[in-house]
Amino acid sequence: MPTLGEFELIERIARLLPLRGEGVVLGVGDDAAVLAPPRGEQLVATVDEVVEGVHFDRRFTPGDAGWKALAVNLSDLAAMGARPLWGLVALAFPREEPAARVLGVVRGIAACARRFGMTVVGGNVSRAPALSVSITAVGAVAPGAYLTRAGARPGDLLLGSGTFGDASLGLEAGAAPALARRQRRPTPRLALGRALAGIARAGIDVSDGLVQDLGHVAEASGVRAVIEVERLPLSAAYRRRAARLADPHAAALAGGEDYELLLAVPPGRLGAALAAARRARTPLSVLGRFERGAGVRVLSGGHVRPAPVGHDHLRAPTPGFDLGPHASRISRGTIRRPR
Amino acid sequence: MPTLGEFELIERIARLLPLRGEGVVLGVGDDAAVLAPPRGEQLVATVDEVVEGVHFDRRFTPGDAGWKALAVNLSDLAAMGARPLWGLVALAFPREEPAARVLGVVRGIAACARRFGMTVVGGNVSRAPALSVSITAVGAVAPGAYLTRAGARPGDLLLGSGTFGDASLGLEAGAAPALARRQRRPTPRLALGRALAGIARAGIDVSDGLVQDLGHVAEASGVRAVIEVERLPLSAAYRRRAARLADPHAAALAGGEDYELLLAVPPGRLGAALAAARRARTPLSVLGRFERGAGVRVLSGGHVRPAPVGHDHLRAPTPGFDLGPHASRISRGTIRRPR
Asked: With a cut of 0.85, is the ipTM above it?
């Protein structure tokens, strides 16, 4: 396919995106978008980037890559209890990148944006040595109703949505389609996050691995988190694959990229949390609890077992948890406030 | 310098950035930022990306690259008449990138953010084959008071801030320091944009070249823009260099990256515009006018002369305006709404 000029390509990109929606006074098309923030609400904003060869590879269709680039952002909004409003998309790709592939990425972004009710209000295209997508997502939340990593208290229950470990096993060569799909088309738990915002005391989404991300909640809240491996919600496809692994819980504990939510809920609100999850049509399980102390403790048969560590985005894949030479581990880190 | 781990590096990045400011309820440090939009104002949002080897090269210090990455965004806010509030920064760089260089880029972003009163509320670091910085900037404007590219009418005067062409000549080997500085540390015209928002009918910032960006105003407004080359505001350093060029106005007309504002002002408001510019301490000149018709017409001695074309971000540098093999032309395109 011949290379399209910038203006033709940009016009084709814009045609694919949802450009009109709530609060969009002036969308894509001028020097900047003009937005009317929803009255009486606070805004929630986050940025993430995915890069070909780092966060996705040729096993991803262009549409998968675009979907995932937005879904990981929406997952951050979900973890805050926010509903999505607006997205700004920076696309970069090499000169030789076929236009069809770029447009495929945009279609994936558009499909995810439509599915979860987000409008794309700004965009940018650049040359770069590798295809990359950086997205800023903005959502809204009732004032003070957002969830943070801080707030878990000793005695709270540890709840988790969906199932864990599927996405990392989905990177293996010959992975079952159900596992590969979790890796390539993650589902941000937006409905659950909103439903639990008034019930849970703390929340986070799992991008780097259950133990590692739970460690952020434990640290920010000043408590210890305890996981019982027997309680880990595991999919049928995970169980089939994990039965042949030396440590059948390692992927669920440390695999990352599940984009499930972890929540701290007072025991007295468990019923309300489970009812809210049913209304949000999202599975929710008790994985363990919070107690006095620090860090994350993993129990197996009532005994402490070693917790596989999570992922450092700027180093090699986690030692002892290498998914093989073709594994393209998500490598992404949110910039955090210094302690 | 040894490679820092992700968490050490992120902590050092966060220490350098302005993290607290207007409307920041919860800044860098959780899954997403929580923001209180200023009551009664609209928001303005834009995204831009710069990539090493495409938009900047080793002639830029890391601090220059960081400054410019943010300044080009703030220039978009200036063109809308908005004041800056919040920024979200996605940094990507190769494994072998020295931490000192990454931190230098962050220092440049921080310097520009502090200078223009923006708080960094979100960030992300990724691996990538080349150093890149993608920034989303969010600002505020009184409801309906924003400037767009549409709105210029026949009879309006064409005004331009500062001087044109310096930034593109600043790319040449051996460029005068005043020209190189315009290329590496552009000044977003935020004070002028705000001051003119109630006076001008249309506005745009010059990233791709005066003629090309003016063409967007002409198209969006349904008018013709006329520039008189004798009126082009040129710096002393530009004049010295351009005297030795075959076409001494080409760089001012097509060079790009000046990040000056172009504005359409009714003749009856010229005095008000010039007074507002003085209060904003920003030079403002009449470059020409708008009339019935379409496109951009460049007059020299009262006669139409060929207008050098601007830059297509996804193709090679503009034919006939090649700044040499080492020229790293800005290559960036805002995604526009389809016509």
From this structure: yes
